[in-house]
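Why does residue order matter? Because the sequence determines the fold. Keep that principle in mind as you read this record.
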Amino acid sequence: MTREEVEKIGEIVDEAVQELYPGAEVRIMGSYRRRKQKCGDIDVHITHENFMKKNPPLGLSKIVDLLWEKGHLIYHLTFLPGMQTGSKVSDYVRSSRHIPREAWKWCKPVGYLTSKGHSGSSYMGVMKSPVVAGRRRRIDIKFYPWRERIFAAIYFTGNGYFNRSMRLWAGRKFG
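Structure:
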């Protein structure tokens, strides 16, 4: 997708974040930040200086629910504790006319997938394109505590090769 489309999606996410957490920093990362002309997905990084060591309780879940309720998100690829939307098959029936109705009776909502071992929150989903009618776009949203923002930005900017190389270098240098 074009950089302009990524920017419009970023604005939609920023609007929802500011509604819940005024003053939060919302940045588009990944290939967009690496100045690629075309992006495969949207990577959004959220931080807020009021949340120095921990994110607000269920913070990302509330943002995701708001985006869903406003009709921007249409599929959840991960579920976060506290999410109120997307846990019923009927939520997806309304968002996809491409899957035959009879197929939905065999579906069961997936369980919660959560990140453990760090204080950030991570979400993956599918969003409606605000530019191309009927087009869907993959989105990753991460909410990190303020004190981790630089490290998260480095990780969330780099491609896979860069991130693996950085971990290898750090392992050799610091053990």
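Residues 3-174 form a domain with the Beta Polymerase; domain 2 fold (CATH 3.30.460.10).
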